[in-house]
Write the structure tokens for this entry.
Amino acid sequence: MTIPEPGTGRRRTMTRDELRVWRRFLETSEQLRNVVTGRLQDESGLSSGDYGVLLALSEQPEKRMRSSQLAQHIGWERSRLSHHLGRMERRGLVQREPVAGDSRGAVVALTTDGAQLFRAASAPHLRVIHETFVRALSAQQLAALDDAMTALAAHLPAR
Amino acid sequence: MTIPEPGTGRRRTMTRDELRVWRRFLETSEQLRNVVTGRLQDESGLSSGDYGVLLALSEQPEKRMRSSQLAQHIGWERSRLSHHLGRMERRGLVQREPVAGDSRGAVVALTTDGAQLFRAASAPHLRVIHETFVRALSAQQLAALDDAMTALAAHLPAR
DNA sequence: AGGCTACAGTTGACATGTCAATCATCCACT
DNA sequence: AGTGGATGATTGACATGTCAACTGTAGCCT
């Protein structure tokens, strides 16, 4: 990549190189995600959605959480969560319970099976992340990537 | 981020910081993808899959391509492409035609409508990429991101 | 010709996502 | 108490993905 001469000001259109970086970013991040979630699936039968839900619940002291708080915590729409919880409940990973004091609400609770599966899945999952992500980068590259992601996130439109 | 003392050798497990970088990478790349594809959808009614297919076909001299070559070109499984082409064909964006000389095969051809829609969608789409991705990064950050993506891609298991 | 294997593509079943509509309850206000 | 708008969550319709099974044809080999 060539770095444009300074003092030129921001361009209004993209160069070929910039577009190439975008495409590489898009493609590589997707492949990486697929590798990691594919191995999670193979090794423990959990999808990345399952993992996120189980992780959030595991972190709660009571291993349970109000449905909309969970949705907010993991950044999902409530409808998406509702569908997903239905599938997870069918598999016995979580359980929905009524809330004392608000009959509209629902609490999502980790089941014993769910907690167990999550525990078993975690270490291998973290190992895969280490192998495919951390190990692929030098410490400097990792820091630079973090920096770039932070800049991108800061520039994202407000959710 | 703290950079670990050199000469320590590669760790076997992840630090909290490394995991944080992974999560930020995962989350930010997903949000960014959603913003860009969401705007493409809003502005032109094309999904990112549609766009990829139309882009590949547009780049062909004859605006047509063998189905499996297309799948290979954009890195999709044939079954995924087949389903997607069915939907695109229903919308009149592409057309499947028999191949002279191989009655098993199919050629996917861009329709007039498909070509037109793709042309109309391109400039706004590139503008969104510029606004949300390129503009969010300094030239150095962009170069560093490219470098990190290249390292990650090189380290991916063979497709 | 007959038969085997590889190839090209499609199909069906199912998981995952989005969007808009719906349902029930809660709460604030009169 | 009564009602109307917010809130919590689910539902249905549909787009998108994956996987495995299937269909039909091509290309060999004998």
Notes: Residues 66-68, 78-79, 81-83, 86, 99, 102, 104-106 of chain A lie near DNA strand D (CB under 10 Å from a C1'). The longest strand of chain A covers residues 102-110.
